[in-house]
Amino acid sequence: MMIKSFNCSIFCFYLFVVIILNVCDALFNPTDFGRIVDHPHRDGSKSKQIILNNGRCLPMVAFGTWQLGNDTVVKRAIKSAVTSGYRLIDTADIYGNEKMIGDILQEIFNEGIINRDDIFITTKVWCNHFSKPSVIKSIRRSMQRLKVSYLDLVLLHYPTGFKEIVGDKYPKFKNGSIIPRTWQKDSYTETWESMEEAVRKNYTRSIGVSNFNRAQIKTLLEKATIKPVLNQVESHPNLKQSLLLKYLMDEQILMQAYAPIRKADKELLNNPILMAIGENHNKSSAHIALRWQLQRSVPIVVKSSNPKRIKSNLQLFDFELNDDEMKQIQTIEEKSRIYDIDGLTNHPDYPFNEE
C-alpha cells in the first residue's frame, strides 16, 4: 500500500512539473488575451509572457537581429541574449541572417543551455514572396535555414507585395518607385490565405502582420479565417501609435513595438521627461521608454551587440511607472517615423499615410 502511494506521489509530482514547464505551450482560454504571466523554463529561469488571441504566449521582450552585424557578432550577441534570459529571437528573410541564427541556436541546444521548446522564433515573409505559392516556399526556406521543424510566429513584413523578380528584393521602375506585385489594392488578403495554410500545415503556430495600418487590419479581418495575433510596428515615445494600439486591443490583436527607443539617438534619450522619470527610479531614459511600452501591454523588440546593454535591456521588471509618469510620457512630442522603404509611397497598399 505504501509503495502504491509512493508511486502515485512520484507520478503526481512528475505531472505537476510537466504542466508547469509547458504552461505556455497549452492553449489558454481566449478570455485570457493580454494577460501577462510568469513562464518558467527548464533551466529554472522565468520570463514575462503575454497571452495571444489564440491562447499561446509571447515573451514581452524580444531580441531583434536586424542589421546586428556580421556572423561573428550575431553569434556572440544571440548567445549572450539567450544566457541573459531572452526567450524570443526576432528575424526575417530580408535580414539575411536566418542561417547563422539557425547554426548558433543548434549549438545552444546541443550545449543544453535551452532546448527548442524554450525559445520563441519569429520570422517574416518578405514582400517579393507574396504570391500564394511563394508564401509557403518562403516559410519552408526559413524553417530550413533556421534548422527547426516549426516556427512560433510568421509575419507578413509589410502589406505591400512586390513584383517577383529572381534575385531582386526591391524591384523598381526607372523613376525609383517599387514595382508592385499587382496594382490591385488590398492584395495582401490573397497572401494571407497562404499564411493560414502554413498554420494548417503546422509550419507555424501563429501568424501576424507588420507595418499594417488600422484600415488594412480591418480589411484583413473581414476576409481572414485565422486572425493575426499581432501587428509589429515602429513605436516609441515620439511615435506612440495610440489610435492603432486602441483599435488592435479592441480586436484582441497585440501591438508589438520595434525601434522602441528609435535608434538609441540622443533626440529621444535626452528627452527631459524621460530623464527626470529615470532619476526617480534610478533607471536610464531608455529603461523608462521601454517600461512605458510594457505597461501599455505592448511587447517590445530590442537590439544590441553589447553584452552589458543586452542584459540591461531586460532589467524592466523591478520597477513600475505610476499613472502620472505614464501621462507625462504621453505628452512627449510626436515626430515622423524613422523607418520606411525608398520608393514605396506610390504602392497601392502603402501603409504610412494613416495610423
From TrEMBL:
Residues 62-333 form the NADP-dependent oxidoreductase domain. The keyword Disulfide bond does not apply. Residues 1-26 form the signal peptide. The keyword Transcription does not apply. Keywords: Signal. PANTHER family: 2,5-DIKETO-D-GLUCONIC ACID REDUCTASE, NADP-DEPENDENT OXIDOREDUCTASE DOMAIN-CONTAINING PROTEIN. This is Alcohol dehydrogenase [NADP(+)]. It comes from Dermatophagoides pteronyssinus (European house dust mite). The gene is AKR1A1_2.
